[in-house]
Amino acid sequence: MKNITKHNRPINTVLKEYIERQKGKVVEARKELQRRFNGLDWNIQKKILVAHLKSSKSDREWAYPLLLNYWDENFKPYVQEIWETYHEERCSWIVVRYFPKDYVLNNLHLLNYERNYMFVCLRFGLDEDFHIEKEKLKPKDALYVHYRLGLEIHPDEAKSWLYEIAIDAILNYYRNDIDLRPSEHGRVTELYPERIRQFGLALYYIKEMGIEPTMSEFSEWCKSVKKIMNNSEEWKELKQRNLLDWEFNLRAYRIVLKYIGIHLPISLIDNLINKYPQLKILVDKLKLEIDFDYMLKELE
């Protein structure tokens, strides 16, 4: 059977079918508008985005990320109406980035999705009348905000954030955050603490900001732990195993987490007790300890 090339129809015809919800044509019209969007003129792109904003939630969800890059003040009344009606997370991204400062700050209690406050800080953090509430930021986001805005960080605070980022990676060990370099062709070749992507990024920010003695202390710590990791029995045994790359990398990542946990200058359990004092009675009564080997045993 011969393949027949399907020619593009006039885009205004397709848009009309979509806007008027013409029976039996809406699904195909939507697909075609979205497929052809990037190659269309700006005036047509604007009409398509507005049409999607006036449509269903799934159609609005398609438009929201595009509005971050294709923003125009003409979209504001549509977005504002949607935000005040539905308070959808993706819509909140646009509000945070483009709406007036007073509007954003007055809606902060509603814009409390996971990383929105970080973007609020990035936008208004240098304004004299805006105070960054660090406790509202995750350590990795707090470091990034200070790095991007050129704000000073006390060395002890930077150290504390590094510990928190490392501990978060250990506690969420099932979330693989390995930093695999292109030159490694899909498989880890050596181990070091910076293999944890977020931890490595945090160290990079601290180095770029010249935060001492935190940077020097952690550089030395990373070197010593790297040596321990690469001389470990787990790593030697892993290199002898016949595994798929993703299986190999997953085990390598958990070896990294194990030795970071063992050699971290602070106690992971003490850190948890400081956060959740009610755990102390349980820890003391049952003499609980962290089993760092469990992360590896779980994979067998």
Features:
single chain; 300 residues; mainly alpha; 62% helix; 0% strand
What does this structure look like?
- The protein has 300 residues and is mainly alpha-helical.
- It has a domain at 152-300.
- The chain is built from 17 helices and no strands.
- Helix 6 packs parallel to helix 8 (116-124), helix 9 (139-149) crosses helix 10 (155-171) and helix 9 (139-149) runs parallel beside helix 11.
- The longest helix has 19 residues, at 245-263.
- The mean pLDDT is 90.
Q: How is this structure best summarized?
A:
The chain has 300 residues and is an all-alpha fold. The chain has a domain at 152-300.
Topology:
Elements: H1 11-19, H2 26-36, H3 42-53, H4 57-69, H5 76-86, H6 89-98, H7 101-106, H8 116-124, H9 139-149, H10 155-171, H11 197-209, H12 214-230, H13 233-239, H14 245-263, H15 268-275, H16 279-286, H17 294-297
Helix pairs in contact: 1-2, 1-3, 4-6, 5-6, 6-8, 8-9, 9-10, 9-11, 10-11, 10-14, 13-14
